[in-house]
Amino acid sequence: MGTHMTSENRPLYSKIFDDLKAKIVSGEYAAEQQLPTEIELAEMYGVSRITSKRALIELEREGLIYRKRGSGSFVKKFEPQSQPSELNGKIISMVLPYVVANGLLGYIQGATEYLDQKGFYLTIHSSNWSKEREKEFLTSLPRKGTAGILLYPVSTLKNLETVYALHMNRFPIVTFDQYYDHVPIGSVVSNNFKGGYLACSKLLELGHRRIAFVSSIGIEYRSSVRDRFFGYCNALKDAGIE
Question: What is the pLDDT of residue 10?
């Protein structure tokens, strides 16, 4: 429903999370009290159901509530000796270069819906286009109990040694939109070579012969951009154009 960010450029679910957490901590919501449902929260805050659901998932991760399938969410009774071990091995982390109100949110929604069916939880981490921050996530998340990482790389030239170390240690990691050359880990990408080829071929079909390839990112930094460029070049070659 429109943007998924607040005016302060925060994810909308964080507003719901903060409000509910404050009411739980203050005692407005007592132990064992049922919280509003995902649908009710979505209506109250004017957001999608997946946004309200994400807020409840984060509250559960914080150990503030527990959820019963088919019954709803309830405030968890504080138990000083209890250990938050119920989520061990059930968290998948997605590392993104940025999170905005469009584009990458489709990845988040798809992963969340699938993992929910499998009894897993998704955490989102933004590297803010920093290779150092990306490396920090790749190094720290496995130590914190993350069972696997979904990675949208800042660049396929950066953090190769860290990604390869995860592979050698048999830690589950899958990249999307891009892939690392010579690092045998799973990746989910579009056929960018064919995309570049088809786009260029269409212009050739329309009679154009002076066709440029323009990108804000150098082809050496991204496998997706590189493959599109090679597809463009191949289309020109097949048409007999230098």
Answer: 62
